[in-house]
Design a protein that fits this description.
Blueprint (H helix, E strand, L loop, with lengths): L1 H24 L8 H25 L5 H15 L4 H37 L11 H12 L1 H21 L9 H15 L3 H8 L8 H13 L1 H16 L6 H11 L4 E5 L5 E5 L10 H15 L15 H19 L2 H15 L4 H5 L3 H4 L8 H14 L3 H16 L5 H7 L4 H21 L3 H10 L4 H14 L5 H15 L8 H16 L4 H12 L11 E7 L4 E7 L5 H11 L1 H9 L4 H16 L5
Antiparallel strand pairs: 1-2, 3-4
Length: about 625
Amino acid sequence: MKEFCVLLCLLFSATVTQAQVARTTTPAKSNTSPEAALELKERRARARSLLVSLSTDARQFHDQTLRARSLARIADALWSVDTEQGRLMFRKAWEAAEVADQESDRKLQEEITRQKARTGGSFVVDLPPNVRREVLKLAARRDRALGEEFLERLKAQKVDAANSATTSNSDPNQALSQRLGVAKELLQDGDAERALQFAGPVLSVISMQTMDFLVELRAKNPSAADTAYSNVLASSANDPQADANTVSFLSSYIFTPGLYVKFTGKGVSTSQSSPTITPAAVAPELRTAFFQSAAAILLRPLPAPGQQDQSSSGLDGKYLVIKRLLPFFEQSAPADMVESLRGYLNTLNSMVSDNTRRRDDEWINKGIKPEKTVEEREQSILDKVERAKTSEERDALYMQLAFLTADKGEMRARDFVSKVEDSETRKQGQAYIDASLTIYFVKKKLADQALELVQRGELTHVHKAWVLSECAKLLAKTDRQKALDLIDEAGDEARRIDRLDPALPRALIAVANAVKVVDPERIWDATFDAVKAANSAEGFTGEDGELVMTFQSKGSSSVHTNDVPEFDLEGIFKDLATRDYDRAVELAKGFQAEGPRAVATIAIARAILTADKR
């Protein structure tokens, strides 16, 4: 018993000791010291003053695009600390954006006219930025009423443009596109509720764009999207203007999300498609509601004899829509509804053209019948090569094969280009395919393949500098010495660019971004080199970094623009601001041009104003 009591006392003592240790080692809740809080407050006040000072300069910028962007971004950055000042700047930004977009549209039309005159009709252009869209997006995110105000002004401007016919390509649906574009951007930013509110006034207009928005909304909020779609179905069934194309677009939401097919009176179809098409898992009640609305529209009486069909699809288009959608009805719709559609289709069969009646091509069956595999498509093109009668026809087919295999990241794409006989087409094609392959390899983090093309491929200096910099970041943890060597190679490649070319500072910024990852101690010197280069380059803005690949031949043309944030100043200066605010501000002041100085300054201030308050 004595031994038991001693043991019990020892256990009790150990338990108490452990509890005491636990109590003494548990950290107390940390609070920001008064000194740190005061320092943070002072830094935020200085950042605010920096933006207000920049806004005064920005109102005098000669470049209207730069003026609009700068004021809008300053307004957005200031909104949380000075809402009224932010609202005023948004309005100033909108005024500048209106002027900027008008000037961009004028220059775009001039360029299209020049290319048409030179090529006989075809043209390839890189579309200018829509500055009003940028301002509208930022304003709508901060203040819905302000976004609505800007959208109404845009509508009025477009109506005036259409009435006066000042431009040959005036688009009466531009306001709808603008609203849905902003709504989709809000959706992508995670604000589904505001996106739906913003898109609401135009969702009754059934189009590719409205259905595409609802499809994207469903990925974020299925319940809200299904409710909105149900309302659209109900209104469409009672709309006398609804026709077969309305049904075709409505069907996309359930059966072919991302694929939208439209038919004209001549039976020609157009579409836009996402990479994959997966039917939506909607409730049976919603699917039934679609069938009822669709049948109500499709089974409307035919025009009386002698009257012309006024619908957007025409009779041929209506025939093709019913033919395309009938398999969906056969799977789930009531039997009497299916029989009614079959009978209607037989009636139209005697009224449409022979070409329409015989159509059974890819677009009729896309999303309904299984698609051909990439291998089947490749073999189909190879068979056409064997039957080609002219070198021009073979060249076009070989380029199709090159595009098809490059999309999969296969080096065989280069072999197909090498078989092209026309030297100019081969030269353009090789540059396009090599650039596309390197972008694919970098995105897939395949450093060895990307570096192989740096040695063998037809790449520009700026493209090589970017690839080398990105590969350096990929190898930073596994082979630091090689990563350092690649950074040096990237810098050498960048310096082969003409000092007046804005590609030089972009390439050096990409190098600085790699230095930030591999050798952070050198980040200030690397960024300083980019600043010096920017002061000699003509047209460097500090943003909109991109790699543009262009291919143009007699039979086809393609422009692919790949955004490259590693070319932009924003990311690098945000990082520098968190390292040493004063030094970053002094470095930004080193830019002589208004554009890069504004971009860098806003990035610094935003980094401080949005920093974690801890």
